[in-house]
Amino acid sequence: MELLWILFALAMVQPVLNRKLLEASRKRLIAKLEAERGSRVILLAHRQETMSFLGFPLMRYIDINDSEEVLRAIHMTDPEQPLDLILHTPGGLVLASFQIARAIHRHPGKVTVFVPHYAMSGGTLIALAADQIVMSPHALLGPVDPQIDGRPAAAIVAAVEQKRPDDLSDETLILAHSARRALEQVQSGVCQLLADDMPREKALELARILSQGTWTHDHGISLEDARTLGLPVSEAMPEQVMQLMTLFSQPVRRESAVEYLPIDRSRRASPAAR
Predict the structure, then answer these.
(1) Which end of the chain, N or C, is less surrounded by CB atoms within 10 Å?
(2) What is this structure's pTM?
(3) Quick count: other Cβ atoms within 10 Å of Cβ 104?
């Protein structure tokens, strides 16, 4: 019976220990990256996208807590010190994303955003404020068109314009009004972020493409697409950034849908390591 209690206690403590070990590993890797690049490294990662609560999946997004933490880290950084922001996120609140974007936009030192896998929606909004965006070959950015009650603002406006005002309810008219304002505000905000690094006409056109419903909201913008759009992108991704992404555990223990032998067979691996 005593042995069962010991095993039970170990089972309860093990997840906490594993989490602490992963946190310590991330901090060591971040410290190493900061020392090599002479920068302040800030990691904004929603790797733990799915959590289980009574069997229902919950999602994590950029929220006010995230923006407060990032702003606090920037406040603790020397103005001339470079900022390296590592993004891995499906997006989130426009308010929180703009807060972070404007803060890094105002930072005097060079700001580099690293996108190892994806930075969609609000994540792309933040990336647009950087001096340089570094993407891995298969990483994706996304459109920044606002959503109103889970619906694309551009689609709401387009649908309303196809009907006569007399055929629309007051609720629909109010929704369309909010959608128009959201589209205007996001386009204006994105243009302000881009205008320092390109002619205003080009910044306005790029802001229009990204914010006015040119694509569906989940459309992926690849490294090549970003270059075509005129964004300052590079594929010089530090290996430490990719390693950081392996140091996140899912909050719920579950079987992984992906299996492979964790052996580095890339050209970066030495013959002895293979």
Answers:
(1) N
(2) 0.86
(3) 23
pLDDT at 135: 98
User: Tell me, what amino acid is at 60?
Assistant: R
pLDDT in tens, 138-194: 999 999 999 998 899 999 999 999 999 889 999 999 999 999 999 999 999 999 999
Locate the domains of the chain by residue range: 20-142+220-254, 144-216
CA distance 42 to 34: 10
The topology (CATH level 3) of 20-142+220-254 is 2-enoyl-CoA Hydratase; Chain A, domain 1 (3.90.226)
Is residue 108 scored above 60 in pLDDT? yes
- Check: CB of residue 92 under 8 Å from CB of residue 213: no
Residue recorded with tokens 């990032």: 70
- Is the CB of residue 37 less than 8 Å from the CB of residue 81? no
How far is residue 97's CA from residue 260's CA, in Å, rounded to a whole number?
A: 35
Cα–Cα distance, 41 to 37 (Å, whole number): 9
Cα gap 32→236, rounded to integer Å? 17
Rounded (5°) CA angle 40-29-36:
55
